[in-house]
Amino acid sequence: MEAGHKYLLFCSVLLSVTFSCYGDSFFNGNANLVLPGSYNIPWMSGIQNFRTLSLITFPGTHNSMAHYGGPEAECQVLSLRDQLRAGIRFLDLKVFALGDSLYVMHGIMYQHSTLKVVLDTVQAFLSEFKTEAVLIRVQPQFFDKNTVNQMVRNLLGNEQHVWVDSGMPTLGQVRGKIVFLQKSTFTLGIPLIDTDGKSNNKVSNVKDKDNKIIKQLNEATEACGGANAILTYSSGTGFGTLWGMFLTPKKVAEKVNPWLNQYLRQFYPNQPRPCFGIIAMDFPGIDLIQTVIGLNWWGQEAV
Known about the structure:
The protein is an alpha/beta fold and 303 residues long. The chain has helices at residues 3-22, 80-86, 115-128, 148-156, 171-174, 206-223, 249-265, 286-294, and strands spanning 58-61, 90-98, 101-106, 109-114, 134-140, 162-163, 178-182, 190-194, 229-233, 278-281. The chain has a 7-stranded parallel beta barrel with strand order 1-2-5-7-8-9-10. Helix 5 (171-174) links the parallel strand 6 (162-163) and strand 7.
């Protein structure tokens, strides 16, 4: 083979490896996070202090700590620390109160963590990146749901870097803080509206799921800027349905995430771009996370 051909072959292989790592990464099934050197971890530093949280579009994860339990239960592959470093700013946590601890669960599956460990990890991240804020939804599971509020308060103690008020803050008020969101039996933090009111994430047809997400995001846009945080889940599972029994959360994300990226990118020419509130995803890749973040800018600042 001629030297020139060998060089071209080498370049093509190098490019394919590079793009497989960084390009078109809308779905991520790799637990080893590799960020480009230019990756902007503290992306919220570019947002004005006066903007309320309800006017910001946040990338989030659904069942953020669901790493265990098999294909039907696993919703994420990145560790919590890596999710935060990749740009995730909303965490979805289901907890079970037992004794004096709050254990993180997904259904009946223990996710090898407690809420204290989660909060310590988030606070360590915010100590390093003080321009950021992390929103957390706590969903009490099973028994003793009404005790979870007090247990969380006890866990926080005199911690000053948290927001548990019901008023909608500006970003300047919550930089470096954990912001709790309240709904149903959890009553600490900003009131939360879930655009899927019944929280039904069953999927038997992915195309139907796409259409449902469009409807939910339209509702989110209309509600942005108000007194509530707005949440849309792009996640789903076919478990429990006849036609979608083989659609695990990962299989759904493999199909939905690239479509979601393309759908959101169509709004980039808009000036300003629409607000969609919180978009909570399963297995999001860094390119999809960046697309969600990029909705907060327009013009020359586009991602």
